[in-house]
Automatic annotation (TrEMBL), chain A:
GO terms for biological process: carbohydrate transport. It comes from Thermalbibacter longus. SUPFAM superfamilies: MOP-like (SSF50331), P-loop containing nucleoside triphosphate hydrolases (SSF52540). The keyword Aminoacyl-tRNA synthetase does not apply. This is Sn-glycerol-3-phosphate ABC transporter ATP-binding protein UgpC. InterPro entries: AAA+_ATPase, ABC_transporter-like_ATP-bd, ABC_transporter-like_CS, ABC_transpr_MalK-like, ABC_transpr_MalK/UgpC-like, Mo/tungstate-bd_C_term_dom, NA-bd_OB-fold, OB_MalK-like. Residues 4-234 form the ABC transporter domain. It comes from the Bacteria.
Automatic annotation (TrEMBL), chain B:
Keywords: Cell membrane, Membrane, Transmembrane, Transmembrane helix, Transport. It is a multi-pass membrane protein. It holds the Pfam family BPD_transp_1. Residues 74-266 form the ABC transmembrane type-1 domain. Its main location: membrane. It comes from Thermalbibacter longus. This is Carbohydrate ABC transporter permease. One of its GO terms (cellular component) is plasma membrane.
From TrEMBL, chain C:
Residues 90-305 form the ABC transmembrane type-1 domain. It comes from the Bacteria. It holds the Pfam family BPD_transp_1. GO terms for cellular component: plasma membrane. Its main location: membrane. The chain crosses the membrane at residues 30-57, 94-115, 127-147, 223-249, 284-306. Belongs to the binding-protein-dependent transport system permease family. CDD domains: TM_PBP2. This is Sugar ABC transporter permease.
Amino acid sequence: MAEVIYDHVTKRFDSVVAVNDLTLEVEDGEFLVLVGPSGCGKTTALRCLAGLEEVTSGDIVIGDRVVTHIPPKDRDIAMVFQNYALYPHMTVYDNMAFGLKLRKVPKQEIDRRVKEAAEILGIQDLLNRKPRQLSGGQRQRVALGRAIVREPQVFLMDEPLSNLDAKLRVQTRGELIKLQRRLGVTTIYVTHDQVEAMTMGHRIAVMNQGVLQQLDTPENLYDRPANLFVATFIGSPAMNIFPAQVVGGDGTVQLVAGDVKLEAPPSHRNRLADYVGREVLVGIRPEDLEVVAGNPESEGGDTVRLPVELIEPLGAETLVHLRGPAGTLIAQGEPRIHLDPGDVVTIRVRKDHLHTFDPQTELALF
Amino acid sequence: MVGSNRLSSRIVFLYIPLALFTIFLLFPFYWMLIISLKPNSLLLNTRVNPLYLTEFTLRHYRYLFENTDFPRWAWNTAVVTFGATLLSLTCSILMGYALGRFRFKGGNLMGTAVFLAYLIPPTLLFIPLSQVVVRFGIYNEYWALILTYPTFLIPFASWLLMGYFRTIPRELEECAMIDGASRIQAMRRIILPLALPGVLSAAIFSFTLSWNEFLYALVFMGSGHMKTIPVGTVNDLIRADVFQWGPLMAAAVLGSVPVAVVYMFFVDHYVSGMTAGAVKG
Amino acid sequence: MTTAPVRTIAQVAPLPLRQRVRLWVESEPVLAYLFMTPGWLILLLFMSYPFFLGIWISLTDRTVGLPTGEFVGLQNYRDLLRDGVFRLTVLNTFIYGFVTVPFKLLLGLLLALLLNQAFRLRNVLRAALLLPWIVPTALSSLAWLMLYDPVLSPFSWLLKDLGLIDASISFLGSRGHAILSLCLANIWRGTPFFAVAILAGLQAVPQELHEAAAIEGANAVQRFFAVTLPVIRGIVVITTLFSIIWTFADFQLVYVLTKGGPANSTHIFGTFAWQEGIGGAGKLGMGAAVSLYMFPILAVLSAILLRHVRSQEA
């Protein structure tokens, strides 16, 4: 077990910069998730760590060794691939034993480790099968088992759940978390699925276009996104974003977008002071827009009235699409709310959950 | 199948045409076989129906083994075939692997060059090549053919294997390399076993092409005892227009049997290799 | 927000030389060229080198047994153009290489369509009917040599028995007969290749397309042209080009059946080059020139083929 450091790592493919000056540190025993849209460089970053890609510049450290120029086999890591990459001509047992045999681990030791891993994963009965005789879920377990028996310093996982069907994915996700906590092996996990990222990682590194956007705990990432990209990437349905004019006067600051006027909460006044007279981007998550029944009085300027465009009942909640000042706003309503398109409803805005972003730099205003 | 399955239409549109094709394509082999078994008395009698075998003899086969160099030709052919196949396969596996799995500058160009090499026929090269063979001091030696047959075997086999290697997912060898294998180990223990059907196709093809080759064998190894079966049969058993049809056909049968047997055992590999050759080169 | 490493990384010590060499050798481009070296070495020594040597030899009057010859420029090429036998050879090669193709293609297509039907023994028949293409041509040509024998030919016997002819046919006795006989044997050998290649293409035709076309009321012939032909077009073109190249550069069949005779009237490039350069006079320069006359045609055919293979891959 070991920590992992990316120190100013850049990877170029011809003219394309896949990973741009990535610096991050993964603690010993941590479960770190690399998340981002496809093509954001997360897989390349992982492959650089594995040694499958030569970095263009920068260094990579595993444990107390600089491994930048060390071939994959000597990095003491194990990797689980999206398509599992099980060796089709070997049995499950041989698949798991392959790495140990190459390392000349004694036979009894191999046997012990393979059986132990098989027990952990509940695949003892499959050891003599060939990969093609296994279901998708079983293959996934074998791929995990192959990583476990190696007892490596770091687990690398490249979208290991995305070939499973939805139900199995949720179940395996939970098992994987428990397994990692139990083994305590440093794990770097790549996914494009922000739900996976939020549920699995101790910390999450959000990447976009080769650049690390934010590295933080799931809670912080959700509550305090560092920039517009992170704000909209994390959370489903995505955060509502609309431009608003900052209007100041006698100790108050107002955000004005069309007919909608919101008084900025005290916590925001300082950061918005510099923007008076200019435009900012306002972000608010759907669950922070509350659909208020009836037609109550406005309390302190935190309610707005907006017409309904569309209702999406999802069972546990209802998404209400509203015609906002600049495009659609989505609010999260009660499960069995009765509304029709065209109704005008009162929305209470949880102003202390408001996010504001600089329209040029797209950085959050703190 | 969409279409009428009535028996009469099947007879007219399927069975009769198939029968005609079968007769056309297999009759020469039937002929070869019955002549090789026919006593000379019947063979040379133009009044009896030549299409049947009323009595048969193995005399022609015995003649072949006792009175001609045929056993030696067979040995020569086998040595050359195995040598050339082994050499070509080794080179082609490496070349196909490089072309199919490595990303490198000039990879496409190399692939095209291999394909074009496949299209260069022996008839274009045999005269200067005979001079090269003499200059290298291997004229009328096994090496003359073992080293020259690969010129048409390597391009074909490399092309075939290149396509085959490409179908094997990259992750498999990446995973092996993370598991602790060097590149060579990953290739030997993971990729090569998976490419075995392709290697088998390439091997069978190399075997038949080497066994059947005629022009190079005629020019570079055509003297004395060093002839191969096709060359020996055509050149030594036909002397000054005196055709000994019995032994000739017996030699043709015996010379065809090894390829036919290998082919029948691996017909699917052969066909897949052949269509790979036709579709991809 | 990016966080800077809390700890500075220990200075990287330069890798030992041996490890650096290993790393370099195992990098993909280096390993790729290393892997290709044995193959290319053989191809360069026994293909490229003789090719250029051939061009040189064709410009000399080198003969068998003498170490070198005099440089004669394009004399050999000019002499050939004036040589009646050579001009006949060119004509024969074109007849042999091109006229046989439509027959092979048509018969091969027909056979492929038949073999694509479901019937018992289909696999056996498919395997057996490929035999003409896989057995040594020199040996199967011997069978044809006897089938064409002026006295013993079973064809003549059969026709006489049926009362259609009086005297045995001299299949190889005149230029016209001989060329027809050569073409027939060539069609016999080449048809299975077309059939098997086209059959592979036919098996790639999606069954749903046929069913959709049938539902729209297309009959078998219409379905063939609307559905089957477009799918197998690529394979047909490529197979045809291969066949032309191989037939064009053939040797064995003609060598065994006629050796270019009677009276040098049935030579093709390969056999004439052999006779000029090795067999008869041993005029290596002249033989090499005959071979090289094939080159422009082969180059054009290869270029077309390469373009089709490329587009097929894309």
